[in-house]
Amino acid sequence: MSGDAPLLSFDGVSVVLGGREIVSPSSFEVGRGQFVCIVGPSGCGKTTLLRAASGLAQVSAGAVRYKGKPMDGPTREVAFVFQDYGRALLPWRTVDGNVRLALEAARVPAAEHAGRIAEVLAKVGLSQHLHKHPVQLSGGMQQRLQIARCLAQRPEVLMMDEPFAALDALTRRSLQDECARLVREQGLTVLFVTHDLEEAIYLGDRVIALQANPGPGRPSIARIIDVDIPQPRDQLSTKEHPRYLHLRRELYEFIEGGHD
Ligand SMILES: Nc1ncnc2c1ncn2[C@@H]1O[C@H](COP(=O)(O)OP(=O)(O)OP(=O)(O)O)[C@@H](O)[C@H]1O
Ligand SMILES: [Mg+2]
């Protein structure tokens, strides 16, 4: 693979579930280190597309390629952060035990566990909570724990399915910033699903807008927008940046106004 080849590519991918085409032929590429957000109305196939990108859902036509090779199942290089952290974490295991799960699954030698766990918990600010159980943590802390568990598997790609949707606005903003910082520090590539257009523009290098019921033979992807706003971003100045305001208006008008 040449240095310029995309890390992940969708080439005419469709997904049929229960006899219905949930994702219609979709093509796009994700470069190494890019943060790509996917937006669209409920039920338009965002989660299904993310699952296909992770090798968790079988494609019915076209191909998902990862590092130039067909993606034919889940790989440890791709970690999945679920919206529902409550169900993603094991309630009977402590913070330490939940992160250890990823290391056990990856068959990391036990002698390395403590060091690796300390490293990822420090990254998400949970070092002081090693022996707590998920029920003793706030929603934001539980989602940080899920992210720590994903980081412990040392992935190249993070797939995030509405990871902050269940959090209050303040926690959500601070997790957005933590997530953006971590992703940059680790050089991760991210595919991030959200309902929130502002979140998508704030975090993304690119935003892919999907439409519900595109019609027979029409692609699910309605629009791809490059977010040409400087990095790193911050909650105040980025959201006052003329490009941010312009893209927000463009995306709102496009999504709210119907587009065909
Ligand atoms: N395993 C399945 N079998 C049949 N239909 C499915 C299956 N999984 C999802 N669907 C259907 O596919 C459509 C898209 O689902 P998906 O979960 O991908 O949407 P979404 O855009 O993530 O929605 P939301 O924003 O509500 O999370 C829905 O109509 C859903 O009912
Ligand atoms: Mg979904």
Describe the structure.
By secondary structure, this protein is an alpha/beta fold. It has a domain at 88-153. 35% of the residues lie in helices and 23% in strands. Strands 6-7-8-3-9-10 form a six-stranded mixed β-sheet, sandwiched between helices. The chain has a four-stranded antiparallel β-sheet with strand order 2-1-4-5, with helices on one face. A hairpin with a 2-residue loop joins strand 4 (61-66) and strand 5. The longest helix has 18 residues, at 169-186. The protein is globular, with a radius of gyration of 18 Å. The N and C termini lie far apart (38 Å). The mean pLDDT is 94.
Topology:
Elements: E1 8-17, E2 20-30, E3 35-39, H1 46-53, E4 61-66, E5 69-70, E6 78-81, H2 85-88, H3 95-105, H4 113-123, H5 139-152, E7 157-161, H6 169-186, E8 189-193, H7 197-203, E9 206-210, E10 221-226, H8 237-240, H9 242-256
Parallel strand pairs: 3-8, 3-9, 6-7, 7-8
Antiparallel strand pairs: 1-2, 1-4, 4-5, 9-10
The structure holds adenosine-5'-triphosphate and magnesium ion.
Magnesium ion (MG) binds next to helix 1.
What brief labels describe this structure?
260 residues; alpha/beta; 9 helices; 10 strands; binds magnesium ion
Radius of gyration: 18 Å
- Major pleated sheet: 6 strands, mixed
Poorly predicted regions are none
Distance between the first and last residues' Cα: 38 Å
- Average predicted local confidence, pLDDT: 94
Instruction: Tell me the series of helices and strands, N- to C-terminal.
Output: EEEHEEEHHHHEHEHEEHH
- Care to count the β-strands? 10
| Major sheet: arrangement of strands | 6-7-8-3-9-10
Q: Structural class given helices, strands, pairing?
A: alpha/beta
